[in-house]
Amino acid sequence: MVGDRRGHDGAAVEVGMPTLLLPPLTGVHDERLGLAARLLGVPTGPPAPAAGAAGPP
Fold first, then answer.
1. How far apart are CA 24 and CA 37, in angstroms?
2. Rounded to two decimals, what is the model's pTM?
3. Do the Cβ atoms of 25 and 4 come closer than 8 Å?
4. Residues 6+ apart with CB under 8 A from 22
5. CA distances (Å), origin 11, targets 22, 51, 55
6. Would you say residue 44 lies in a domain?
7. Which structural domain range is residue 26 located in?
8. 3 forms bridges with which residues in the sheet?
């Protein structure tokens, strides 16, 4: 479980659910899901070009 509000999402911790509580967002451009993805070993770099897509010249 991933959450960012201890009041709501902290209940998962209380019942023993594996939980990643992130700091609350401070701006509309904050992105925190990458933290959870990296924790799971999911690559978070830019998306790979689609097969057959033309790259830069």
1. 17
2. 0.53
3. yes
4. 2, 3, 4, 32, 35, 36
5. 14, 43, 47
6. no
7. 2-39
8. 21
Gap between the Cα atoms of 55 and 36, Å rounded? 30
Tell me, what amino acid is at 53? A
| DSSP H or E stretch at residue 3 | strand 2-3
Q: Is the dihedral of CA 8, 43, 25, 27 positive or negative?
A: negative
Per residue in 4-52, pLDDT (tens digit) is 888 888 888 889 998 888 888 888 787 788 888 888 888 887 766 666 6
- Measured CA to CA, the distance from residue 7 to residue 25 in angstroms comes to 15
Identify the bridge partners of residue 21 per DSSP, sorted by sequence position.
3
Instruction: Give the three-state DSSP class for 7.
Output: helix
* Total domains present in the chain: 1
